[in-house]
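If you are new to this repository, start here. Below is one unmodified record pulled from the training split, so you can see the exact layout before writing a loader.
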Amino acid sequence: MTDKMPSLSIAATIPSGPDSIEILNSECFCISLDTKSLKQALESEIGQPGLFDLIQQRCPYLFATRPVFVSKANLARMERVIHAIESVVALTAYREEILSDSPHIASHNPGGAKGVFFGYDFHVTEGGFGLIEINTNAGGAMLNAVLARAHQACCPGIDKMLAAQNKSSALEDNIVAMFFQEWSLSGHKRALRSIAIVDENPTEQYLYPEFLLFQQLFKRHGLEVVIADPSEFTLHEGVLKHDKMNIDLVYNRLTDFSLSEPASATLREAYLQNAIVLTPNPQAHALFADKRNLVLLTDPVRLQALGVPKATQDILLAAIPHTEIVLPENAEYLWQKRRELFFKPFAGFGGKAAYRGDKLTKRVWTEILAGGYIAQALVTPGSRIISDDEPAQVLKFDLRNYTYDDKVQWVAARLYQGQTTNFRTLGGGFAPVYEGQIDPNEKSCTT
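And here is the target side for that same chain:
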């Protein structure tokens, strides 16, 4: 895996001063999504005919109309937090503690595979900062490769910010390199030949168009590819098969993180027999993405007991909102403090069954008290005004850092309205992130 994977954040010159990023996020409308370029990318450059229409019909709010601006300092801070977390996860004491309280399959040795497309999600403003959660099957990577080709500037001063368009092919090559690296790390000497992209009822998934983008990408690099439901496989003499196709590697998009559902039985057995490379895998989810891990990572006593260096503790405690498990003994306290909290299930994903405390009803609170929830201190998301119309349309955003093997591959934003990201907001969806670099002598974006 190369260290030179390009980022979707692009250095640019912006107005100087402490509020310069907020100014750009509220007043800069010089860059917008170009529908013609989007269609060309989806249907001829990296996709396939009909994909643009499929997205318009099925998921029209995948791509935001405007980019998001983030300071260089905050991009660097997110990267430091990620390195700090990865260093803790590498500790034997941490792994033993987490795996002892995880499903048994999480203790199975994944054979060297690191796990593709981790997603570290942050709320970042110039006045606030917090890691919200970690995901181990973060979606949207190929959609952001499309975005690198589809945003256009309307003024020469900011046109240089769109250099990412020229890096999109390198970005795609490095995504493929990551999968080949997973295969190699697992000890295989022969070449990787086939990949299965697996999710439950994949054609019905909201991000099914991304599966098609991955399929085309892998095929362009000489791989056989199938998109399939986990129930469609058989295991014969140590070989996972889809019809007559032998499967080497499974790109796992399932939210059945421990492969415990009946439909996942064949995949589970293939994984336990080391018949496939499964990426990401149950161990990666247990070590990184179980929300209970945030409780440990915000507890200075437990961090000290694990032998986490003081400098690393300081990074974690300053950047991760305090988190605790909802239990009968703290229920009354948490209910009283609910307006300052966000409640999430241990194995939650995509904002499902997650609730802002100030929106809680007694009925939902009863469900939370039944068990399986963490309470996390609220961190205000960033905001982006997407047009100069009156009244202004203001969207929230979070920042997703896609990582592999402790390296940030690129950063993307998700614009939305409501409690959590939802890809149901007009003007919202995935957005490119542009790195703001202060230069007091120049102003590239005139608003």
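Two things worth knowing about this chain: The mean pLDDT is 89. The two ends are 41 Å apart (CA to CA).
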